[in-house]
Write a structure and sequence with these properties.
The chain is of the alpha/beta class and 215 residues long. It has one domain: Ribosomal Protein S5, domain 2 (2-Layer Sandwich), CATH 3.30.230. Helices cover 22% and strands 28% of the residues. It contains four helices and 13 strands. The strands form three sheets. Strands 1, 2, 3, 4, 5, 6, 7 and 8 form an eight-stranded mixed beta sheet that branches. It has a three-stranded parallel beta sheet with strand order 9-12-13, with helices on both faces. Helix 1 crosses helix 2. The protein is globular.
Length: 215
């Protein structure tokens, strides 16, 4: 995931509180890891506003991407929607009544790439199940068609950024990108390689990934 903006996003880290559940809609501010689009990129932590609702009809998954204050590139939108569908299928969850809305709370910022998609998909699944991801945990990775965690690039830069943002646990794909060389884990950061949706979900939420009652 890359970020394009005139702002130095590495300095704009909002501490994400625990999600609050409302009657009907549930909402959470979730952290994502990325790198800036510069000649010498740096890792950064940003946040997205995620809202989840379950409709009475079962006409299919609906994912809405707000276009302000910031926005998502077309590639990021496609990756996120695919990841939600793939992760839910791997967990034997139906998305037919899910309504998901995503917002970028930074003016002029565009989110690129696909490495945020697994984090978003797992956060959506958690809200669907009435469970939440603690604010000091974050993940980078995609979701493959068969429901595994796909490798992404610039993991060392993202892990450093997570440490600087006082994240305590960072989930990374257990299969590393060939372009990433050996790297050191920042002090006080637990880096957890994960290979499956169920592994990632339990590491993020401390709850096993069980089907919803009625599915």
């Amino acid at each position: 995931m890359a970020l394009a903006s005139s702002l130095a996003l590495a300095a704009i880290v909002i501490q994400a509180p625990l999600a609050q559940a409302f009657s009907g809609q549930r909402e959470q501010l979730i952290p994502i890891l990325g790198v800036t689009m510069e000649s010498h990129p740096i890792g950064t932590v940003a946040n997205l506003i995620l809202a989840f609702d379950e409709r009475l009809d079962r006409t299919g998954l609906a994912v809405h991407f707000r276009t302000s204050p910031g926005r998502f590139s077309r590639m990021a939108q496609t990756a996120v929607e695919q990841a939600i569908r793939r992760a839910a299928k791997a967990a034997d969850l139906s998305t037919d009544s899910w309504d998901v809305t995503l917002s970028v709370p930074y003016a002029g910022v565009t989110i690129y790439g696909d490495s945020l998609s697994a984090m978003v998909a797992l956060a959506v699944m958690a809200l669907a199940k009435g469970e939440f991801i603690p604010s000091d945990r974050v993940m980078t990775g995609g979701v493959t068609p068969d429901g595994h965690i796909a490798p992404v690039g610039a993991v060392p830069l993202k892990v450093i950024a997570a440490g600087d943002a006082h994240m305590h646990r960072v989930l990374v794909p257990d299969e590393m990108d060939e372009a990433d060389s050996d790297w050191l884990t920042p002090f006080l950061v637990q880096v957890s390689p994960v290979g499956s949706i169920s592994q990632a979900y339990e590491a993020l939420t401390d709850h096993p990934l069980l089907p919803l009652v009625g599915y």
